[in-house]
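[Meeting: bench + compute handoff]

Bench side (C.D.) handed over the final construct sequence. Compute side (W.E.) agreed to return the predicted structure before the next meeting so the bench team could plan truncations. Sequence as handed over:
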Amino acid sequence: MPTLSMFFGIIIRMYYAPKEHNPPHIHVYYQDYKAIVNIDDCAIMDGELPPKQLRLVVAWIEIHKEELMADWNLCQNGERPFAIEPLK
């Protein structure tokens, strides 16, 4: 699972197995926390994150939503997604 971005100790990844299950989502890792976050509405689908880190991830998703959806479409075809600029 390639890393799309890393910022403030948060790692964002996306599987690129063909036909990864919908809805479009990312896998977020922060210390011992893990979460799956929906790209469309930024809701946590599974797992948990501390509130501060969740706010950072939501801000990052909002800024890069188009790029994330483009990466999701690549992943649906079994292609490796592109890296995305970290939150600064």
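W.E. noted at the follow-up: Residues 3-76 form one domain. C.D. will use this when planning the next construct.
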